[in-house]
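[Discussion] Sanity-checking designs against the backbone

I'm trying to build intuition for which residues belong where. Below is a structure token string of 101 positions. I'd appreciate it if someone posts a full sequence so I can compare it with mine line by line.
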């Protein structure tokens, strides 16, 4: 017997311990100070602001040198690096900036 699926259905529900670990990717526009273009960064809901800043620095590293010390700015406010993307209020296609130093 052959079963045909669309790939969206699960044979059985995931256990709660696994289901809690599934995070959605959030596309965000990141702008690195000194870079000439903005970059689309895929952030996980549970990524910290610090991780988000590192992702942008890694993506922009071909054009701009990153820094160990940096600030992530969203809506003209510097974000706490320990906050998650969701806690910081970032939503799909929002813009954030990384300022080295």
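Best answer:
Here's mine. Compare freely.
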């Amino acid at each position: 017997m052959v079963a045909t699926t669309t790939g969206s259905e699960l044979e059985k529900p995931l256990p709660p311990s696994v289901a809690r670990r599934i995070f959605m990717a959030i596309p965000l526009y990141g702008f690195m100070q000194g870079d000439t273009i903005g970059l689309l960064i895929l952030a996980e809901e549970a990524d910290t602001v610090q991780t988000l800043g590192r992702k942008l620095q890694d993506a922009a590293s071909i054009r701009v040198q990153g820094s160990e010390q940096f600030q992530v700015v969203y809506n003209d406010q510097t974000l706490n690096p320990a906050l998650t993307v969701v806690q910081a209020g970032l939503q799909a296609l929002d813009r954030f900036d990384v300022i080295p130093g």
